[in-house]
Amino acid sequence: MVAPVRNTPAADVAATPDKTFLRTRTKLARGGLTLAMLCSAAGAGLMVGQYFLIAQVLRDAVMHGAGLPQLMPRLWLLLPIIAARAVLLWAGEATSIGAGARVRLAVRGELARHLLALGPVALAGERTGALTVALIDSVEALDAYVARYLPARAASALVPLTVAVAVLAADKLSALILVLAAPLIPVFMVLIGRGAEKLNQAQWARLARLAAHFLEALQLLTTLKLFNASKREAETIARVSDEYRQATMAVLRVAFLSSLALEFFATVGVALVAIAVGFRLLWGEIGFGEGLFVLLLAPEFFQPLRGLGTQYHARMAAVTAAERIAALLARSSLPLVMAAEGPPSTHGGADTSRRRGWRPFGRHDDRGCDAAPVAAPSLAFDHVSLTYPDNRVALTDVTFHLPPGRVTALIGPSGAGKSSIAALLLRFVAPTAGTIRVDGEDLATIDPATWRRCVAWVPQRPHLFHGTIAANIRLGGPDADDAPVARAAALVGADAFIAKLPAGYGHIIGERGAGLSGGQARLVALARAALRDAPLLILDEPTASLDAETEHLVARAVRRLGEGRTVLIIAHRPEAVRHADATLRLQAGRVMQEATAPCA
Amino acid sequence: MRLMLRLLTLSRPAAGWLALGSLAALVALVANVALLAVSGWFVTAMGVAGTAGRSMNYFTPASLIRLFAILRTLGRYAERVITHEATFRLIASLRVWLFQRIEPLSPPALAAWRSGDLGARLRTDLDRLETVYLRLISPLAVALVGGAVLVAWLSRYSAPLAWLEAALLLLAGLLGPLAVARLSAPAARRQVTEEALLNAATVDLVQGMPDCLAFGAEAAQLAAFDAHSRALVRAQVQNGRAGALAQSLLMLCAALALWGAIVLAVPLLRTGAIDGADLVMLALACLGGFEAVASLPGALQGLGGVLESARRIFAIADAAASPAPGGTARSRSSAKEGMAPFKPRAFEGDARSQSPAAEGEAQSALRATRGPAACDIAASGLTYTYPGAPAPALRDFGLTLRQGQRIAITGPIGCGKSTLILLLTGLVAPDGGNVSLGGCPAGDLDGETRRGCFAVAPQEPGLFSGTIRYALRLADREADDAALWRALRTAQLDQEVAALPDGLDTWIGEAGLTLSGGQAKRLSVARALLRPAPVLILDEPTEGLDAAAAEALLQAVVANLAGRSLLLITHGKAGLALMDAVVAVPGAQASPPQTA
C-alpha cells in the first residue's frame, strides 16, 4: 500500500512557517491596506464631527427651544458629512477587497509554480485532491485574513482611539469608563475564547467529515444497495447527525460565552456611561451638549471591537489554510535533483546556458530536438542507484544499455522499480549514485527542458487535459496545425474512433477524460507521442488492462512509432513485449537478466 | 417565492427551535433599541431636571437601562445557542430526507453524482441550504417583525416619522441589497463559471503534471492556470465591491434616519406634542432601529446562490420521486406489495458460520423454513440500453447458473458484462428478457430479497472512507476479526494488511491510506466473500495483478466457495480453467452468445 510520503527535512526545520508566510505575503497588500486604514481613520473623524453637530443641534432644540430655521444651517452641514462617511466606508472596503485579491493571485501563482518545480516524484505522496484544495480553497481562505481580519484589526485600534480622545475632551469620567471597559473585552475573549475556539474548530472539522460521509454514501449508493445496506444508512445518517449535534452543542454553549462576555462589557459600558452622564447632568456637573455627545459616541467605541470578534473565525480558518500552503511551499524539490541542478522552471542561472548549448545526438545546429531529423540516441545506465528521501530503495546498482534505434523491453513485477527508471529518464528525479549516459554524455549535465524535448512518453494512465482531442494531441507539438495532428492520429490508429465521435477532433474531453475509455485515452497519448516525433520513446504499460481488440491496435501503433527510434517499453507481462529486440528483467530494484533474444 | 415556502416546509421538524431562536433574536434586538432610546430619554430628562433645579424619578429609567442591558446580552447568547441547535437539527433532517429521496434511484441515474464536479456542487448546495435558516431566514424574520414593532411604536408619536423610518429600513435592508444583487448578477454568474474553469485548470495542472513536464508544456499550462485564476479573482472583486455598496447604503440610511427624525420631530417639540426627552429618545430609536437590518445586505447578497442551490437540490429530489424509467419503479411497487411469493433459501457460507446475523426478518424466517443454500439463476433474452445511449449495452443475453456452479463471463471491454450485475440484482430493469431466481420470476421479488441472493465485488470497488474493518463489515455487521482475516486471506490481502502498523484499524480513503487499484479491488473481493449469500459475483477481480497473483487469487476463491455459485466477469484469461463454463459476451453489435 502506498504510504503517504513524509515531509522532506526542509519542512521539518522551518519552524512555524505560517507566521512568516502570512507576514511576507501580506506585504503585497500593504499599500491597499494602508489606504483602507486611512479611509477608516477619516471616517472615524467625520463620525465624531457628525455626532458633535447632532449633539449641538439637539441641545439647542431641547434646552434653548431653537426651531428648525435656527437649526437648519447645521443640519444641512451634516448631509455632506454623512455622504462622505458612506463614500469612505465603501472606498475602504473596496481597497481591502483589491488587496485581498492581489495576495490570492500572487500566492496561487507562486504555489502552482512551486508544485511544478517540485515535480511529480516529490509530490508522489500527496493526493491530487489535497493539492487541488490547497490551490483553490486554501488560497481563497487567505482572503478572509487579508481583506477582512487585517482591516478589522486596524479599525479596532484606530476608531476606539479616535472616539476615546473625543470623549476625553468632552467628559473625563466617561472616557475613563470606556478605557477601563475596553481592555476587559480582549482579555475575556482570550481567557474564554482560546480553548473554546479550538474545540469549536474541531467541531466544525467533524461537521465537514460528516458531510463528506454523507456525500460518499450518495456516491456509493449502488454498493450500499448491493449489500442491502442503503435503508440502514438513512438511520445511520440520522443517528450520527444527532450524536454530533449533542456533542457540538455542549462545546458551543461554552464557546459562545466568549461572545457573551464581549457583548456584556460592550453593553454595560454603554449603560454605565449613560447612567454616569445622567446623574452628573442632574447635579449640573456637565453640560447637556457634552453629555449627549458622549452618549452618542459610546456605542461607536465598542462597535469595531465587536467587528473584530466576528472576524476571529475567519482568521482561524485563514491561519489553518496558510499553514497548509506554507508547508507545501517549504518543501524543497528532491535534494538529488537540487544537487545536480536547480528545479527546471524557476532557476535560469548562468551555467544553464552551457547546458542549453548541448547539441543532441551529433547535431551541428542549436535547434535541439525541435527540428527533425535527429538520430536515435544510445542510452546507458552505469551503476545507477536510486533511493527516495523516505529511504525507500527503488534501484540498486542498475547497469544496462539501450542500443540506438532498437526496442528494449523492461519487465518485472509491480514495485520492482520500472517506473523509477522512467522517472529517471524523464528527469523527474536524479540518481543517488551512478550516471546515465546519452551518447556518452552525462544526462545530469543536460538542461531538463532541453532533454525532455528529445523524449516522447506514453504513461500508463495518460492525463487528458480539459479541452479538445486535437488540443490534447497537440501537447506533443504546440505549433502543429490540423494536418500533422490528423497524421499522428492516423499513424497510431486513433483516427478511427475519433472519426466516430460527433465532433471528431473537436470533441471536448471533460473531467478525467470522461467520454473516452482507457484504451482510447492511451491511443490519444500515443498520437501525442507520434506528433512529438522525438528520437527516444518511452512507453509505460502500453497494453495493460486493454481488451484484445484495443490491445492489438495499440501494439500495432507501438511498432509503427518505434521505427527508427530508441524505444523503452515497460511492462509487467512478458507477452506484452513480444516484439522487443531485447528484454531486461527487473526484480526488486536490480536488473536480473539481460536477454538479447526476444522473450516469448 | 414558492421555493422559499418549500424550504420552510422542509424545516418543519425543527420549527419549534427555529421559532424560539428567532424570538430570542427579537428580544435582543428590541432590548438594544430600547437601551439606546431609554438612555437618550434618561440623559435628556436628567439634563432638563438639572437645569431647572427640579428633582425627578430616576430609579425607573436607571433600572430599565440595566434591564435592557442584561436582556440584550442574554438574548444574544440564547439566540446563538438556539439557532445553532436548530441548524443542526435541520441538517440531520435535511440529509435524511435527501438520502431517502435519492435512495430508490437506479444506478444509471445515480451515475451523475459520481462525477466530482456534481459531487462538489452538491456539497456546496447542501452547505448553503443547511445554513439558510441561520444566515437568511431568521435574520429576515427578525428584521420584519422588529422593524414593524419599531415603526408601530414610532407612529404613536408621529406618522411621518414612522413612514420615514419604514421607508429607510426597507431601502437599506431589502430594496438596496436586492438592487445591488441584481446589478452584480452577471458578475456573480461569471464567478460561478470561473470557479468551475479554475477547478478544471487546477486538476489539469496537478493530475497532468507528469504529462505536462514530459512534453515541456509548463509555460502554456501555467499561462492557462494564471488566466483562469485572474478571471476568477476579477469576478470576485467586482462582486465584493458591489456587496460593499449595500453595506455603505445601510450606513447612509441609518444616518439619514437620525437626521430626518430630528428634522421631523423638532417642530413637534415646538407644538408641545412631545417633550425634549421624547425628541432625543425618538432620534436614537430611529438610529438604533437599523440594527434590525444590519445583517441583511450580506445575507441577501448570497440569496441568488441559495435559491440556485435550493432549485438544484429540489430538482434532484423531484427526479428521484417521480417514477423513473428502469428498474426502480418495478422493484418499488413490488416492495410495496410486501408479500413476495419467492422465498430464496438461506445460505450458510463458511464466513458466516459463527455469526447468525439478521439480514431482515423475512430472510431469517426463510432461513428457518428452508434448508440448505440454493439460488439457481436462469436468465434469457436480456437486453438493456442505458438512458440516452445509442445502442444497447447488452443484447439478448442468456445464462443458466445452478447452485454451486462456476461460470466465467468474458468479452471485450464495454460489451455489457458489468450491466449484467445490475440486471441480475434488479438495480435496473431489463428492456426485454427474463430473470428467474430459485425458479421464481425475479420481477416478483422485492429488491432486498433479490439482492440477498448475491455477494458482489463490483468493478468499481466502492469502498467507504474508514477503517479496513469498517469497510469489510458493510457485508456483515457482526463478522468477528477471525472471519475478516479469513476473507482477507482468500482475497490474498492478509499479508499486506498484517504488515500495516494498525492492521484492520488502518484508515483508508479520505485522510487515510491510499490503496492501489489492485488492493482496493481485492479488499472489495474480501468484502463480497464475507457476505453470506449463495451467489458470488466478481467483476474483474484480478485487475492490477500479474498473471501468477491473479491465478492464485482465483484458486483461493474457488477453494473457499463452500457450495456457493461463482460468476466471474473478466476480460483476461486468469482462472478460466477453474470454471465449469465460459460464456462469451460479444460486442454489443455482434451475434448472439454461445456457451462454451
TrEMBL record, chain B:
GO terms for biological process: cell redox homeostasis; glutathione transmembrane transport. Residues 19-305 form the ABC transmembrane type-1 domain. The chain crosses the membrane at residues 20-43, 132-155, 161-181, 249-269. One of its GO terms (cellular component) is plasma membrane. Residues 346-365 are annotated as: Disordered. The keyword Transmembrane applies. InterPro entries: AAA+_ATPase (IPR003593), ABC1_TM_dom (IPR011527), ABC1_TM_sf (IPR036640), ABC_CydC/D (IPR014223), ABC_transporter-like_ATP-bd (IPR003439), ABC_transporter-like_CS (IPR017871), P-loop_NTPase (IPR027417), Type_1_exporter (IPR039421). Keywords: ATP-binding, Membrane, Nucleotide-binding, Transmembrane, Transmembrane helix. It is a multi-pass membrane protein. One of its GO terms (molecular function) is ABC-type oligopeptide transporter activity. Residues 377-596 form the ABC transporter domain. It comes from the Bacteria. It is found in: Cell membrane. The keyword Membrane applies. This is Thiol reductant ABC exporter subunit CydC. It comes from Rhodopila globiformis (Rhodopseudomonas globiformis).
